[in-house]
Amino acid sequence: MKASKTLPLLAALLVSACTVFPDSPPARLYSVDLGASRGVQSCSGLRFALREIRLPGYLDRHEVLLGLNGSLVEVSAQHLWASPLSRELTRLLAQGVQDRLKGASLMPYPVRQAERPDWILIPEITRISHGEKAYSLSLQLNVLRLDDNGMAAKGSRSAEPLSAQVQLPLGGENPDNATRAARSARLLGEATGAALDQLTPRLARQLCPPA
Prior knowledge:
Blueprint: H1 2-20, E1 28-30, E2 41-42, E3 47-50, E4 67-69, E5 72-74, E6 79-81, H2 85-100, E7 101-102, E8 105-106, E9 119-130, E10 134-145, E11 162-169, H3 177-207
Parallel strand pairs: 1-6, 2-7, 3-8, 3-9
Antiparallel strand pairs: 4-5, 9-10, 10-11
Helix pairs in contact: 2-3
């Protein structure tokens, strides 16, 4: 008798749970692409390594940044980076520097004694502004020279970091979150690549051995 009363109650609870907690849509994953370089400098003989990029806290997260308005950070749990963003950007920047400085060799980081680079680049995205009308990004590179023992050479750090700012326009439309996430991933790649293009001639002047 008790079993006959318990079963309808359990069924009612299951129906209620399904109503309150419906299945969530699957998360969408996004990646970054810096695009092709717009300028190449000759830099034969340069050996460099790139440390992992530093990112602002609002960008260094699993969720794609949909918008940034003052202190309001807009994200969605349904729109995620396919891999950790700092690791992906570091890989892309290292390859981007190598593509833009023709003849340069990318060395492993952390530094190995048998494969010691001449220079270490320390990248940082210091600021992003993602409003309704424009997307802007500031990229900074600290440059550190190593001595024959693989230690930082005295006075080797550049007095002023190399820095570049890029601003890209946004349309006036009000898209859904999926469109905003895809646009944000595209803009992050385009702006980072454009900033690296700006820095390439200055990097070449500072790092590349004379012919």
